[in-house]
Each structure stands twice: as C-alpha cells, then as structure tokens.
Amino acid sequence: AYKGPTSEEILRKRKEFLSPSMFTFYKKPLNVVHGKMQYLFDENGRRYLDAFGGIATVCCGHCHPDVVKAIVDQTNQLQHSTILYLNHAITDFADALASKLPGDLKVVFFTNSGTEANELAMMMARLYTGCHDIISLRNAYHGNAAGTMGATAQSNWKFNVVQIGVHHAMNPDPYRGIFGSDGEKYAKDIEDLIQFGTSGHVAGFISEAIQGVGGIVELAAGYLPAAYSSVKKAGGLCISDEVQAGFGRTGSHFWGFESHGVVPDIVTMAKGIGNGIPLGAVVTTPKIAEVLTRRSYFNTFGGNPVCTAAGLAVLKVIEREKLQENAHVVGSYLKDRLCALKDKHESIVINFTFSYDSFIGDVRGRGMMLGVELVTDRHLKTPAKTEILHVMDQMKDMGVLIGKGGFFGNVFRITPPLCFTKDDADFLVDVMDYTMSKM
Ligand code: PMP
C-alpha cells in the first residue's frame, strides 16, 4: 500500500516549490503512484484506464517489463554521456531506428526531447540551404525553446520570443478551415508565402502529420504533397515532426507522413520513442547530415546508453506485440464507436438547441490518435470550453482518463498506450456516453 505523502501535501509543495505556470487536470488533481500497461493507480489503489498516456510518451504501456528491464540492465552496466567513447547501445538503436525509415533517411542524431530535435532539424535545414526562412502551420506545436516556439503557432504557447524568419501558413484544417477538406487549395498559401514573404528561396517547411497539441487536426488530404512540392521548388527541406504521430500510433503506418504519400528530408521524433524515457531524435540523409561537420556539435546526454537501450526495447516490443496493428484495429473500432456517439439523435440538432446531441461537433484522427471536438452548437461550432472540463472530471470519477487540447481547449485527445483493447475502447465510449447524457 502507498505510504507516501497525501495529495494535499504534494499540492502544497508544488505550489511552494514548483513553477506557478505548472497546471494539473481535474478539480481535484489526481495523485498517480503506479502504472501498469494501460492503467494508472492512485494512492488508494484505485485503477484508472489511461487514454492519454500516449501523449505523455508511453506507447508500449506503463512500466512495460521489457523496457524496464532494458533500462535497469543498462543502468547497472553503464550510464554515461553519448560522446567521447564507443558504446554499442547507441549504435544498435540508431541502426534499428534507421531501418524503420524509407529511402536515404538513415543518419540519426539523438536529443533529449522533441524541442531539441526540432531545433536541430530547423538549424540543419538553414545550414543546408543557406536560407533562413522556415514555414510552419498555424495551430502547430513544435517546442518551447526560442526557435521552436517561433515555429509553434498558437498564442497559448508563445511568450515574447524574437520570431524572425518564420512564416505561418494557413492551416489545412478540414473542420474549421475555409477550404474544408480541399488540401490543394490550402497549399496555395505556401506558394503565396514563398512568393510574397521571402526572397523566393526558403530553408524549409515543418509540420506534424496530425496536429496533437492543436487538437488532433488531420491535415486535409492532398495538402502535404502539394506543400512539399512548392517548398522543394523554392529550394527548401521538408521536416516531418513525428513527435506525436510516429511509432505506429496512427495504426495504418509507422510514421504519420506515410499516409500522406510524402517522404520528408528530415524526420524528428520524441515521446513514444522511449516509452517515457527522455529521448528524441532527428533522422536525415547522409548528405544533409554533413552540414554539422562544419563546426563541433554534440549533445551531452542525447542518446546516452540507458535511453537508447530503452529505445531499442521499445522497437522490439512494438514489433513483437504487433502494437501498430493493434493501434489500427482497436483505434478504428474506437473511432467508429465515437462517430456513432456523434450521430446519435442527429434530428434534434436541427432545432439548434443546446443538448447533448449537439455536443460532439467532430470526431477525427487515425489509429490511436483520436480527437473529439465538443461544441455547444454544431452549426456555429461554438467551442464547449467549460462543458469539456465537466465531462473530463466526471469521466475521471468513473475511472477513465482522457486528455484535452485544441486552441480553445475544447477537443478531447484520446491517445492511449498502444496496448489498449476493444474492451477498453467500449468502456471509454460507454463512460463518455453516460457522462454526456447526464449533462
Ligand atoms: N512536437 C510536437 C508535435 C509535440 O507535441 C511536442 C510536445 N508536446 C514537441 C514537439 C516538443 O516535445 P518536448 O516536449 O519533448 O520538447
């Protein structure tokens, strides 16, 4: 049984000793003391189904025994910096990771986070092209250091960074965007930006395959191929930020970009790569990787033996336990059930009344990266900002944890560990249904 401090004590210390900017979910924040696969346990031993752990990096499941063993074994053996000496943990994982990527994408730089990976990727694009201008998408999240905060395009996450050489293109958002699902129309904005906002040459373009923090926004079909083509014509490199969509999460493919039929020049990753261990990576071609030989470049702990041993164990678990396939099968089932929830009693919506039936405006995403956007009016798409908090709290009380995001904070983010089962999916939807019908 748990013998640690109470939630109240932890909260008091948090308020006194941790940054005032830190936030918690729920009116009464949850004290999680233990995790096992798709479950989290609080101090009273109460079990919660974790449908948001994926975003907090867990892809194989909390405390997956193989990953834990790899970490413990390597910690007992050696933990050191990545630089200076040889160690096979680093090269073994780089080799295994490179084999998951298409074409010439086979040179790996390890980092400690997604932010660092994107910072490095953007710097490499700038060095390689000799240009400074980077294009990112409105509503994107790419990190919280100076450069990546500039590329991030949501006022919620931006401080007063000096933002030079970044342009934010129109977001190809099928639900709220003005061109609906017509990806090619949105891509024209990239061409406009290049023609009117730059010298005609750019360093690159960075985007997520499905926007995570932005509220699980799938880029409209046809967008990425057209955008990549315009960027390439202007001499730029295309960067795919796979921090959330990578590692089998989208189910149909291992990487999010694959479902768009494009091959990036640089791929960045973090979160799921280490199942909770701080690890990130940039993968690119040998030719692009050359730019870092112009100066000395290193990262003390990026790709250290313990983290890379964990990374290798993660890849093996994904393969052996067929987690990508599970993400596809169970994720598709879950999405179908969420769509059915949305469609329930469609006729009442026509009356424009606020009711449970007009509550779900959109269900989207792929595999185990799903979003449910709550609105108080389906026609006006008015964000249900406060209602979502109520539903989340109630769902927590019934034993289900889900996340939220989107610019207005009105989108449920469902990103469970990839070992989530059909029964888990049923439980989640039943609890959501019950909670909403009580609103
Ligand atoms: N890119 C994306 C798509 C992300 O979602 C995040 C984190 N939410 C990052 C980059 C930054 O990663 P980190 O928090 O590990 O720096």
UniProtKB/TrEMBL annotation:
Catalytic activity: glyoxylate + L-alanine = glycine + pyruvate
InterPro entries linked: Aminotrans_3, Aminotrans_3_PPA_site, PyrdxlP-dep_Trfase, PyrdxlP-dep_Trfase_major, PyrdxlP-dep_Trfase_small
CDD domains: OAT_like
Keywords, ordered alphabetically: Photorespiration, Pyridoxal phosphate
One Gene Ontology term from the biological process aspect of the record: photorespiration
Entry GO terms, CC: mitochondrion
Record-listed E.C. numbers: 2.6.1.44
Pfam families: Aminotran_3
Top-level taxon: Eukaryota
Molecular-function annotations in GO: alanine-glyoxylate transaminase activity; pyridoxal phosphate binding
Cofactor(s) the record lists: pyridoxal 5'-phosphate
Top-level class of the enzyme under EC nomenclature: transferase
Protein family membership: Belongs to the class-III pyridoxal-phosphate-dependent aminotransferase family.
Protein name (database record): alanine--glyoxylate transaminase
Taxonomic source organism: Escallonia herrerae
